[in-house]
Design goal:
7 helices, alpha+beta
């Protein structure tokens, strides 16, 4: 015979009621926390703080509690409900007080602003009244002066005539002085205008120099080592001094590192005491400075004649606008164009002819080229 609890309960309704009561019987909650005891004086229970509220804690007889913190245990959920309700009441009261304070502050600020506006209006009215009185007195004085002059002109005496002549001479001298002052002001404005244009040219020149690359110091840039820079003769023209003998392109390439060609030399070449002035085309997108030891990155040319792999190389020699690199190529590079600045490195794109730099690598190095390029860039950054 099997025991069927459901069927047994059907015949025993009292058991069902007992189970339901047992299921919903309130079990006391044991909630532990920390009280900050205010004082140990007086009878038990102690007065303590729980989340900003004063509650009572039952302490058994003979328990020694010092001022500070004491561990408590709540044996009923009723305490917790009371505490939460009290906390909500306190928060609402605090929010109401803060809102009332803010409203009072707003009213005070508004009244103060209105008072300041009223004071300003009163002062403006007083100032207008003073101005009106001043102009009125000045008009009265001018009317009196005109009447006096009219009387003097109608019946002038010798002394009055002399006085009038002196006054006319004084007015004429004052007028001449004002004219001279106006002329000086115009000259001063013209001088300031010229100074401003000169300053603008200097700023443009410094911006142009700064765009040529990080290897140039604006105050002590490399061309100064020849003492050959005379000045910028235009937006893209630089005038330099060089000896009369020798090829211009070779001189500038060997001594200054300017990557130029014969077409970049402009204007007349004038020799004076063995020195000639040369005007060079110096557009920032065309003329760049490269010196031996410069680390450059060789990239594919726009014509697609070079290898698709970009490599790093070091400039070892410069002559007549051409660059000899560590790859062994010489007299093939015609120009060096900066592409970007990344992590302190200056990247260059180098243009050459069809017989220029072509890179051939073993298959293993070709497959590992991304890793090698990354490591090379890291080492360059660290160095």
């Amino acid at each position: 015979m099997k025991f069927r609890p459901i069927e047994a309960l059907k015949h025993r309704p009292r058991s069902i009621v007992f189970l339901l009561l047992l299921l919903f019987f309130p079990v006391p909650m044991w909630i532990e926390g920390t009280f900050s005891v205010e004082s140990t004086a007086g009878p038990h229970p102690l007065r303590a703080m729980y989340d900003g509220l004063i509650v009572s804690v039952e302490v058994s007889e003979g328990t020694h509690v010092e001022e500070g913190e004491v561990i408590f245990t709540l044996h009923s959920t009723e305490w917790l409900d009371r505490l939460n309700t009290a906390k909500e009441w306190e928060a609402n009261a605090k929010w109401s007080d803060e809102r009332r304070d803010l409203l009072e502050q707003g009213k005070t600020a508004l009244s103060e602003a209105n008072r300041i506006d009223q004071d300003r209006l009163i002062k403006r009215r007083q100032l207008r009244s003073l101005n009106h009185e001043y102009y009125k007195s000045e008009l009265d004085f001018r009317a009196w002066d005109l009447n006096s002059l009219d009387r003097q002109l109608k019946s002038p005496t010798v002394s009055e005539r002399d006085h009038l002549a002196t006054r006319v001479a004084h007015e004429k001298a004052s007028l001449d002085l004002e004219s001279a002052s106006v002329e000086m002001t115009e000259n001063d404005l013209e001088l300031r205008k010229n100074q401003l244009e000169f300053s603008v040219d200097i700023i443009s020149y410094e911006d142009t120099i700064s765009q040529l690359g990080e290897s140039i110091d604006i105050n002590r840039y490399r061309l100064k080592k020849l003492q050959d820079v005379v000045g910028w003769m235009g937006e893209d023209v630089l005038e330099v001094r060089a000896p009369c003998s020798g090829n211009v392109v070779t001189l500038l390439s060997n001594h200054t590192g300017l990557v130029i060609s014969d077409e970049d030399v402009l204007g007349h070449i004038v020799c004076d005491n063995g020195i000639r002035r040369i005007r060079v085309y110096a557009n920032v997108n065309h003329l760049h400075l490269v010196e031996p030891g410069t680390r450059i990155r060789l990239r594919p040319s726009d014509s697609g004649l070079w290898s698709s792999q970009a490599v790093w190389t070091t400039v070892t020699f410069i002559s007549e606008g051409a660059i000899e690199s560590s790859l062994g190529n010489s007299q093939v590079v015609l120009d060096v164009v900066p592409l970007a600045h990344e992590q302190g490195l200056r990247w260059f794109g180098v243009r050459g002819d069809a017989d220029g730099i072509v890179c051939f690598r073993p298959l293993g190095l070709y497959l590992l080229s991304p890793v090698l390029n990354t490591l090379d860039a890291v080492f360059m950054y660290l160095s």
